[in-house]
Amino acid sequence: LGDASLWLLSTSMNGSHCLLTMPTVYLSPHPDNFQNLRVLVAAHYGRQEPKVVGLPPDRELGNPSFTLPKLPALETQAGVRVSGPAAVSYLLSPDNMRGQGPKARASVQQWINYADLEMAPAACAAAFSVLGISKQNKQVLDRAVAELRKLLEVLDGHLKLRTYLVGEAVTLADVTVACSLLLPYKYVLDQALRTSYTNVTRWFLTCVNQPEFKAVLGPVKLCDQSPGGGALNLELKDPAECRMAESSEQRQQTEPPPKSASQLKKEAKKKEKLEKFQQKKEKSQQQQGEKKPKAEKKEKKDLGVITYDVPTRPGEKKDVTSPMPDSYSPQYVEAAWYQWWESQGFFKPEYGRRSVSEPNPKGLFMMCIPPPNVTGSLHLGHALTNAIQDSLTRWHRMRGETTLWNPGCDHAGIATQVVVEKKLWKEQGKTRHDLGREAFIEEVWKWKNEKGDRIYHQLKKLGASMDWDRACFTMDPKLSYAVQEAFIRLHEEGVIYRSKRLVNWSCTLNSAISDIEVDKKELTGRTLLPVPGYKEKVEFGVLVSFAYKIEGSDDEVVVATTRIETMLGDTAVAVHPEDPRYQHLHGQRVLHPFTGRLLPIVCDDFVDMEFGTGAVKITPAHDPNDYEVGLRHELEFITIIDENGYLVNVPPPFLGMKRFDARRAVLEALKEKGHFREVKDNPMVVPVCSRSKDVVEPLLKPQWYVRCDTMARGAAEAVRRGDLRIVPDFHLKTWFNWMDSIRDWCISRQLWWGHRIPAYFVTIDDPSVPPGEDTDGKYWVSGRSEQEAKEKAAKVFKVPLDKISLRQDEDVLDTWFSSGLFPFSIFGWPNPSEDLQVFYPGTLLETGHDILFFWVARMVMLGLKLTGKLPFREVYLHAVVRDAHGRKMSKSLGNVIDPLDVITGITLEGLHAQLLDSNLDSAEIERAKQGQKSDYPSGIPECGTDALRFALCAYTSQGRDINLDVNRILGYRHFCNKLWNATKFAIRGLGDGFQPQPNPKPSGTESLIDQWILSRLSHAVELCSTGFQAYDFPGITTAIYNFWLYELCDVYLECLKPVFAGPDEAAIKTAQNVLYTCLDAGLRLLSPFMPFVTEELFQRLPRRSPASDPPSICVTSYPTTEQFCWRNEGLECTVDFMLSIVRAVRSLRADYNLTKTKADCYLQCQDSGTAEAVTCCSDYIRTLSSSKQVLVLQPGQMPPSGCAVAIASDRCTVHLLLKGLIDAEKEVSKLVGKKAELQKQILRLRERMDGPDYTTKVPPKVQEADAAKLKQSETELQKAEEAIENFKKMI
Question: CA-based Rg of the chain, rounded to a whole angstrom?
Answer without folding.
Answer: 38
